[in-house]
Amino acid sequence: MGVLQYVAKRVGLYFAVLFIGLTITFLLPRLMPANPIDGYIGQIQARASGALTADDIIQLRANLEQLYGLKGDLFSQYLSYLERVVLHFDFGPSFTYYPQPVSQMIFNALPWTLGLLLISTFIAWLLGNMVGLVAGYFHTKKAATILEVVGILLYPIPYYILAVSVILLLAYIFPIFPLSPTFPVGQMTPQKFGMVIYNSLLPALTLVLAGFGWNILSMKALAVATTEEPYVTYARLKGASNWTRMVRYVFRNAMLPQVTALALSLGTVFNGALLTEMLFSYPGVGLIMRTAASGGDYNVLYGAIAISIIAVATAGLVIDLIYPLLDPRIRHK
Amino acid sequence: MVRLGRYVLAPLAGLLLAGASYAQEMTDVGTPRNETLIVQTFDGKSANPDVQNPLNQYAIWRGFRELGWSFLWEMDTATGQSYPELAAGPVEVLNPEHTKFRIKIRPGVFWSDGVEFTVDDLIYTLDTSFKYKDKLTFVARTTNYVKEGSWSKVDNYTMDIETANPAYDFQTVLGVYTWGSLFVPVPKHIFEGQGDNVVTFKNTNAVTLGPYKIKEFDPNGFWQLWELRDDWQRSGWGNLGTPKPKYVLYKDFGAEETRTLAFVQNQYDVDTFMSPDSIAAAKARNPAIETFSPTLPYHDMNDACAYGVYFNQQKSPYDLPEVRWALALTTNLQQVGISAVSGQFKAAALPFADTPITDPVYYQPMLEFLNGLTLSDGYKPFDAGFGDGMVAALKAQGTPEADLPTGDAVKQGFGQGWWKYDPAEAEKLLGSVGIKKGADGFYTKPDGSPWTLDFVIPADWNKVMQRTGFSIADSWKKAGFNVTARQADNGEFTTVQNTNAKLDLMVNWNMTCTYNSNWFNSWNSFSDTFVKPVDSNEPLQGNFIRVTDPEIFKLVQDSKVLEIGSEPFVANGIEIAKKLTSGMQFINLMNIPTTIPTNSTYWKNYPKQSNFYAAPYTWWSSFKKTIVNIEPTGK
């Protein structure tokens, strides 16, 4: 298979995934039992202690159907949705927070989500793999077993428990970090940037701890298996040092599945981290999606899920395209 | 090692101590802590904090109604009486049909940018609401109530206006009934320049009429800081008294776990809807944390609305009063209240909340009716000793004597009474309409086919209703009803409420919101216009308890031309309440328990049961009374 053919096939597959994903994204929220108009009227009614009269509700319902673009048959709504999303990358206004544009809601939250999750995911991956590599390469030594125990201890702890424990320890018993951070507003200064970093450290630490264990265990298993490969034995017999064998022979080969896992997890960071946002009062797309799902806010769901689909599909494409660079076996097929 | 201590650890410790001291003196947003009242937001995080246009859906829970806006008339939530705020006095009625009115406003009221507030602002607000009524999402109440184009300016401080129908509740529709008004005057000089763009205008930062102005807000929606205007005395309610805090911070302190810890650390002053368990934990660690009352049920029970079980009365077998009564008599409210809300609730048998305001108007006059109420088989279902039973049950569970109400406080705390828990009588009633238990121990339909009760309850978005719903389902199941408690998210919940074809039973609240003698607020939709076929999938716009009784419809219709609060108006309300109750058209359960713990480290004199100068809610416009009544502790 030529390189061009390989790339074309992957790119074609990428667009097919996007099309199917966007179509499912359009249909799925409409299968939910929640209706955005009922959701909005329910909210207003709740806020008005039931004061909206039946006539008020009739008028509000008619206006909302018009404003939300929910009049007309499903197919014409679908075509209009594809046109808006594909040609203009426009997801329309939020239903729950009309007339707030969905894109603005998501793009306001996205830098926070990405800033926290990209960095913490990468650090967890890097640290986990380094510890896992050492634990796997030296798996016959006692010290390595201790490193593995760290992974075994951390991995099964539910994130909620881990996060609350960290909060209790580092924000309540030893109040080093804020319980409920206040992110500075206005023009960013070095001092304000420092505050943002400081306020993000605790959620980042829990995410690193939560992701760390799995990376240790999986890298350790891969490293143990790779250490026993004939080419590693050959390198040892040839007189290569421990460091050279561990880094150049074991790590490079064991890394491939880990890179795939990293790329896929980087793709999913666009979904946000709902629990982290809730527990640490951290801004992000997770809470926006949660509110949208409960209120039947189709447009916000379209926006958030579509961005996530695009991110995951793109991560998959990038991996497919760079894999031949990482693995000569694929390059030479 | 000594050097390490001297040069590294000592400065570090000093820094930490200085930091801690600074943290106590200043808030995270840079204001002096002892000049800042900090409250937990009602809705957690806001998704649209920069949208501050009250003609549309906006960041409503960030203190606008309480501190930023001002209304024509406000509600004294301690007495249930409406009083003028922007208005110079009560509305003047200009014709016997009660459709023409004159509004006079106080001169000398100014917007936060120094422009005087006049009737031009009111007229602009009305003009804009009607002109863009199909594009603005927060004006429907006004545009249905006011007659289009009927308003005219008399002078800068006087205007005439007509309503679409005879209106006896003018002050509480164009002013405040409970939580705020749906008619919010906007500044003409700011909005007019927007032209047609007013429908998407965000109005950031809003120019305000209240004594506070927006100092800063978090674009991520976690907090908003208000600052007292220098000219607060000439604001919309500058005549109410001196606002004590220079700053008010509305902030979301996150999940209940972190909120509780932050509350213990005195990081904020008033919480909203903290669970009884968390409050107990917080109180145990910080003596400055207090509930609304030192004795049970501890919390505020004076919300306008009450929780209840709504039936689809048009659907078999819920169309039978015997079935509805059987479900009421198998609801073990004592156990429900203890397991769902730790016994911290006030029972309400009539179809409104039982509060100090509704008690003399409805509950006291109807006690004789309740005590004498007799079912078709001669059974008397009312248990006037429900409160005493609660005290005994809680005492048996180890509640300290000091926390239990005694004497008259028992009925003030736990209500005037509720329905007996009597599964045997329920079985008798069901038997009388051919419903008997099958081989599996569950009741079957009259034709012998299996009967599954689909009972919709809120998912996590209302935990008190959710827990109450689960407990009720448990109570029914024990009595032999094959009930499925199904959790629904907000949107689905409203869809079920509105759709005949989807409703069997649900826990709900919105047909009971009667804060004072004005029952019309909740029951105006009892009309044959709002009855749809039993299998209809069309949304119902009101009458969510599916009343079909023409006598009730007539009472509602007749009351439309009666003075609110007048003797005949109240008498009609009592008559409707009797019909709803004797037919058990819905099972009213309890006043909405509202947990508002306060922390008196920095501020004192919050509204409490023994000092009830206003409803204690930080998300009602009446919070302004709290703002002028609290006092700094000097810390």
List the helices and strands and how they pair.
The complex is a heterodimer of chains A (333) and B (635).
Chain A: H1 3-31, H2 36-47, H3 54-68, H4 74-88, H5 102-137, H6 142-154, H7 159-173, H8 190-227, H9 230-238, H10 242-268, H11 274-280, H12 285-295, H13 298-326, H14 328-331
Helix pairs in contact in A: 1-13, 5-6, 5-8, 5-10, 5-13, 6-8, 7-8, 7-11, 8-10, 9-10, 10-13, 11-12, 12-13
Chain B: H1 2-25, E1 36-40, H2 64-68, E2 73-76, E3 81-84, E4 92-93, E5 100-104, H3 119-131, H4 140-145, E6 152-155, E7 158-162, H5 170-173, H6 188-191, E8 212-217, E9 223-228, E10 247-251, H7 256-264, H8 276-285, E11 289-290, E12 306-311, H9 321-329, H10 333-341, H11 358-372, E13 382-383, H12 386-396, H13 408-414, E14 418-419, H14 423-432, E15 452-458, H15 463-479, E16 482-488, H16 490-498, E17 505-508, H17 520-523, H18 550-559, H19 567-582, E18 586-591, E19 598-599, E20 603-604, H20 623-629, E21 631-632
Parallel strand pairs in B: 1-10, 15-16, 15-17
Antiparallel strand pairs in B: 2-3, 4-5, 5-7, 6-7, 8-9, 9-10, 11-19, 12-17, 12-18, 13-14, 20-21
Tally of helical runs of chain B: 20
Q: Please provide the ordered H/E string of secondary-structure elements of chain A.
A: HHHHHHHHHHHHHH
Under the CATH scheme, the architecture of the largest domain in chain B is Roll
Largest sheet of chain B: 5 strands, mixed
Averaged pLDDT of chain B: 93
- Helix/strand class of chain A: mainly alpha
Low-confidence stretches of chain B: 1-23
The low-pLDDT segments of chain A are none
Main pleated sheet of chain A: none
Structure characteristics:
heterodimer; A: mainly alpha; MetI-like fold; B: 635 residues; alpha+beta; D-Maltodextrin-Binding Protein, domain 2; Dipeptide-binding Protein, domain 1; 5-stranded mixed beta sheet; globular
What does this structure look like?
The complex is a heterodimer of chains A (333) and B (635). Chain A is mostly helical. Chain A has a domain at 110-286: Orthogonal Bundle (MetI-like fold). Helices cover 78% and strands 0% of the residues of chain A. Chain A has 14 helices and no strands. Chain A has helices spanning 3-31, 36-47, 54-68, 74-88, 102-137, 142-154, 159-173, 190-227, 230-238, 242-268, 274-280, 285-295, 298-326, 328-331. In chain A, α11 crosses α12. By secondary structure, chain B is α+β, with helices and mostly antiparallel strands. Chain B has 3 domains: 33-44 and 207-299 and 595-632, D-Maltodextrin-Binding Protein, domain 2 (3-Layer(aba) Sandwich), CATH 3.40.190.10; 70-197, Dipeptide-binding Protein, Domain 1 (Dipeptide-binding Protein, domain 1), CATH 3.90.76; 306-591, Dipeptide-binding Protein, Domain 3 (Dipeptide-binding Protein, domain 3, Roll). Helices cover 31% and strands 14% of the residues of chain B. In chain B, the strands form 7 sheets. Chain B has a 5-stranded mixed β-sheet with strand order 16-15-17-12-18. In chain B, α7 (256-264) packs parallel to α8 and α11 crosses α19. Chain B is globular, with a radius of gyration of 26 Å. Residues 1-23 of chain B have low confidence and may be disordered. At the A-B interface, α2, α3, α5, α7 and α11 of A face α4, α7 and α16 of B.
